[in-house]
């Protein structure tokens, strides 16, 4: 009898008033006794996730308010539709200082940070956390972000992956330029490092050039753990080549399995061990010891959804202006410049049946199109086991509802149930994020 597959758990949040459930900031359970922009909230949220043995806290990001819906950011400003959003990297030392094992993953865009600076920033953060940093590699797709950054035009999708491929090759050269034994710390002779073991990078590419030595000594992980969410054909190839963990949002076990098989096949073609690439899928949970109370709480979350807010976020994420359709019109396939996988999740939300714009807003406003598990700890664990076994995933991005309450529920109710079933760790395997991710 084969061993049961164990799950990885990541807490999916954002450094803002809202996470990934529309208008949840207005819920009476949300952030009681805390302010989302203050360090105490993040300190205690990190401690809660570590108590639950989560692999990491994953911090999503946007760089400017979305303007895709109706050509204005008014809806997202009015309803706090992922607005405001504060800078994520600043949270890393705070969370790291109050935890010992929890990984901290941040989203940083390659579109606006030069590779040399990106390498330096991530290496520094890996030092400050004793090797617990992960990087979600993104290329910006939002017109509002490019305008805010003073850029005239979006980079076309096909060109984006050419640029980021070269970006990654430069980063690898920088991170790998210090030999493991380069630092000698010879106090007697006053020699800190052997220059022959700290190579100067001289990179001349089509999009980037860089000449100089990496300015940070090798960090505990040397390279941060690399995360990515590739959904287009080029995105899937990129994820299969570079990512240690690949994120996705899929509404059914069938679509989960198809994506998992595809990514693992591409990883194999890229010369990697397919099982080394961890497939982490979005999941939202509403957990209570009493099933009726869990259902009532979920109904409250659905009722809180503001249609305008949800459509503002959905339009921003996908790059498709949903105000061009009526609320009772069906969503049809389109060529989107934003996140293809999130658009597909809406198209597939009712297992192939037509989805109206109103329904899309409700679905996206609650869980961004991810499946929702509602019920007792046993009910939720049953659903997670199905996704692990039938969907082919390795774990879950746990989408926040009310915080920190939802993560308290996961830690106190769900994790013990998963442990009883042999589906989750009972202690951390090591000290780095990579240790946790590669444990099983």
UniProtKB/TrEMBL annotation:
The protein's superkingdom reads Bacteria
Which keywords has UniProt assigned to this entry?
Answer: Flavoprotein, FMN, Monooxygenase, Oxidoreductase
What are the leading ranks of the lineage? Bacteria, Bacillati, Actinomycetota, Actinomycetes, Mycobacteriales
- State what protein this is by name: Thermophilic desulfurizing enzyme [Bradyrhizobium oligotrophicum S58]
Molecular-function GO terms, alphabetical = monooxygenase activity; oxidoreductase activity, acting on paired donors, with incorporation or reduction of molecular oxygen
Similarity remark? Belongs to the NtaA/SnaA/DszA monooxygenase family.
Transmembrane portions of the chain = none
Q: Where does FMN bind?
A: 61, 107, 161, 231-232
Q: Which residues form the Luciferase-like domain?
A: 37-389
InterPro entries the UniProt entry points to: Diverse_substr_monoxygenases (IPR051260), Luciferase-like_dom (IPR011251), Luciferase-like_sf (IPR036661), NTA_MOA (IPR016215)
Give a Pfam family name. Bac_luciferase
């Amino acid at each position: 009898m084969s061993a049961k597959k164990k799950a990885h758990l990541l807490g999916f949040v954002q450094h803002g008033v809202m996470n990934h459930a529309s208008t949840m900031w207005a819920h009476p359970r949300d952030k009681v006794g805390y302010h989302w922009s203050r360090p105490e909230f993040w300190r205690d949220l990190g401690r809660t996730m570590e108590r639950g043995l989560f692999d990491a806290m994953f911090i999503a990001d946007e760089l400017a308010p979305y303007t895709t819906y109706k050509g204005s950011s008014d809806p997202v400003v009015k309803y706090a539709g992922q607005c405001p959003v504060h800078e994520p990297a600043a949270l890393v030392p705070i969370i790291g200082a109050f935890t010992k094992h929890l990984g901290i993953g941040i989203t940083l865009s390659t579109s606006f940070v030069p590779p040399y600076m990106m390498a330096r920033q991530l290496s520094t953060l890996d030092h400050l956390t004793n090797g617990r940093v992960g990087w979600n590699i993104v290329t910006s797709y939002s017109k509002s972000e490019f305008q805010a950054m003073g850029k005239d035009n979006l980079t076309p999708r096909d060109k984006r992956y050419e640029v980021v491929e070269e970006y990654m090759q430069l980063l690898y050269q920088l991170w790998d330029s210090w030999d493991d034994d380069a630092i000698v710390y010879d106090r007697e002779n006053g020699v800190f490092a052997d220059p022959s073991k700290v190579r100067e990078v001289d990179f001349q590419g089509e999009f980037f050039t860089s000449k100089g030595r990496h300015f940070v000594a090798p960090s505990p992980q040397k390279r941060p753990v690399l995360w990515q969410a590739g959904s287009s054909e080029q995105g899937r190839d990129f994820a299969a080549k570079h990512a240690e963990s690949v994120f996705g949002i899929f509404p059914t076990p069938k679509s989960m399995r198809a994506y998992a098989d595809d990514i693992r096949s591409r990883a194999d073609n890229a010369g990697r061990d397919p099982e080394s690439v961890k497939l982490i899928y979005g999941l939202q949970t509403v957990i209570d010891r009493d099933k009726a109370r869990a259902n009532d709480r979920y109904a409250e979350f659905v009722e809180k959804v503001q249609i305008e807010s949800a459509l503002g976020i959905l339009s921003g994420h996908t790059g498709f202006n949903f105000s061009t359709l009526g609320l009772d019109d069906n969503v049809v396939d389109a060529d989107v410049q934003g996140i293809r996988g999130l658009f597909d999740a809406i198209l597939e939300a009712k297992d192939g049946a037509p989805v109206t714009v109103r329904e899309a807003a409700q679905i996206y406003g609650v869980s961004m199109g991810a499946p929702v598990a509602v019920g007792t700890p046993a009910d939720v664990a049953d659903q997670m086991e199905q996704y692990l076994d039938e969907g082919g995933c390795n774990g879950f991005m746990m989408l926040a509802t009310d915080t920190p309450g939802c993560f308290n529920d996961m830690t106190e109710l769900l994790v013990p149930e998963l442990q009883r079933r042999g589906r989750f760790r009972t202690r951390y395997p090591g000290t780095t994020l990579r240790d946790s991710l590669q444990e099983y």
